Amino acid sequence: MATRSKNILKRPEFSMNRAVYKSLGYSDEDLERPIIGIANSWNTLVPGHFNLNQIAEYVKRGVYRGGGTVVEFGVIGACDGTAQGHKGMHYILPSRELIANDIEVMAEAHQLDAIVLLGSCDKIVPGMLMAAARLDIPAILLPGGPMLGGAEFAGRKSDLTSVSEGLGMLKKETITEKEYLDLEENCCPSCGSCSFYGTANTMCALSEALGMTLPGGALIPVSHPDRIRIALDTGMAICELVQENISSRQIINEKSIENAIKVCMGTSGSTNAVMHLTAIAYEAEADIDVLEKFDSLSKEVPQVAKVNPASKWNMEDFWMAGGIPRVMEKMKSVLDTDVMTCSGKSLKRNIEEYKYKFPENPEIIKDMENPFGFTGGVAVMRGNLAPNTGISKPGAIDPSVQIFAGTAKVYDSEEEAEEAILNREIKDGNVVVIRYEGPKGGPGMREMYKAMKYLYGLGLNKTTALITDGRFSGTNNGCFVGHISPEAAEGGPIAVVEDGDIIVIDVVNGIIKLDISEKELQQRLSRWKRPEPRYKRGYLSVYSKLVSSANEGAVIKY
Of 277, 287, 311, 551, which is most buried, counting CB atoms within 10 Å of its CB? Predict the structure, then answer.
């Protein structure tokens, strides 16, 4: 079988390369097999990656069974949770580009025949999928699995976000310090990607919807033995993709990306998925306008699944209800089921052959005919505040605040806004405006996760709103609009909002506007001056100069 690696392992011209492998213990027999890379983002900093070394061992067994030879290398992976609310979050989205570049470098420098991507968290999964799309070699992404839910708190199993909500409650004195410290101790009972449907689990789910993760592989909990079994299956499946010459772009294409968009809508996935799918489409050179598809399909695709933060149910519950296979089975009438997947089979066959372990739970997954809502869970917003669009998540917003008008309270950084919120400066009827946090201005487009959670903990999530040119975590709820483009650092209208301005947010109809005249808006914009960049050295300085707008996926274009 002709493979990439054979071209650099031929004798006698490439005996030097064979000698390199032999210095590591590989044999002539090993070098006759396809060389399968494992890009492993294991580390002891990120809960979602803590078990990936164990997962890698079972992938290796599967590869050996399938007739391949394994080579493994490390990939960086930073934790959004640890990075929240401080300087570290500037680096999280930019790490996505480093991850994609890192995998490209290793796969191309060593001419790997295929690659298994091991990652579970917010920027690692999309970065890996971007690399797969760019390389166009056989590839499968395997997550490490979601964390288990924690002790009961506020009417549901707790998770990492409960601590931030709890801080607002502690400040308001609705819980005691002991209750707060108990929450810290008991909200994360295992490793794994956080147990809510945030960006991490959304992107794992959408990898499965794209066809890049084996059926059912996205949401198996970290501690369940099926996680081990699917690792073994993944190792065998990647060898089959090599034998069948099925590369990543045969799987990641216009049709499968549209399927992923529909599944994101149907499950009310993270708003960050809009940006990540745009970036993946860019790397795949797919002929699809992701933002336009989100906009048009939001009015056509119903919400068939409801998970925390939109309900009390966490990821383990979602998995037991059937997870992404059940969602795609329910949605098959609107999906392209002829697309190829990494199982080597069509989506149609995957749906038909999938065996469920547990009964259905209609409180989590409903039919298309009787959904949780008749519009999708992610909305594209437009108006004079967001000429190039913003993104919201109606599936996680209480109906009482899906149409909201309030007075602006303006902050030029996340830290300023969080300090104001905790100092009780935000009142009912305010719209918190956090700007200069976009891809260029941040730089790095930080998440306004803590700000939203503090509002929730203070009981303001149904009486206030928050808008930003930054991002939101997939677990945020309340009335919010993020990804506002153009961002403030590029002179977008959000840069000239003033305290006391009236802002109107209509999530139902996709409208966000500043209630001033066009003449006044243009006068303000003419007076605006570009601020000095926050970082003048290092990676963030380079990133801020090269990164595109949020509505273009915040990618570095080549």
Answer: 277
Name residue 505's beta-bridge partners.
404, 512
For the record, the structure tokens of 110 come out as: 């060593």
**Rounded-to-integer distance, Cα 101 and Cα 27, Å:** 30
* Phi, psi dihedral angles at 224 (to 5 degrees): -85, 140
CATH 3.50.30.80 domain position(s) in the chain: 379-552
The DSSP-derived string for 178-205 is: HHHHHHHHHS--S-SB-SSSSHHHHHHH
- pLDDT for 477 equals 77
CB 483 within 8 A of CB 512: no
Residue type, 183: L
Angle CA 315–321–322, to nearest 5: 95
Largest Cα–Cα separation, the chain:
76
> Where are the CATH 3.40.50.2300 domain residues in the chain?
32-148+190-246+254-353
| 3-class DSSP state of 540 | helix
Kindly list the distances between the CA atom of residue 225 and the CA atoms of 177, 190, 374, 378, in Å, as whole numbers in the listed order: 37, 15, 36, 33
Rounded to whole angstroms, the Cα distance separating 270 from 483 reads 12
- Each residue's pLDDT tens digit, 70-88: 999 999 999 998 998 889 9
Specify whether 120 is catalytic.
no
41, 162, 298, 473: the catalytic one is 473
Q: What is the pTM of this model?
A: 0.94
Contacts of 517 (CB under 8 A, 6+ apart): none
In this structure, what DSSP letter does residue 340 have?
B
Peptide bond into 309 cis (omega under 30): yes
Architecture field, domain 379-552: 3-Layer(bba) Sandwich (3.50)
From the candidate CATH numbers 3.40.50.2300, 3.30.360.10, 3.40.50.150, 3.40.50.1950, the one assigned to the domain spanning 32-148+190-246+254-353: 3.40.50.2300
pLDDT digits (tens, 9 = 90+) for 381-414: 999 999 999 999 887 788 898 999 999 999 999 9
- What's the first-to-final CA gap in the chain, in angstroms? 33
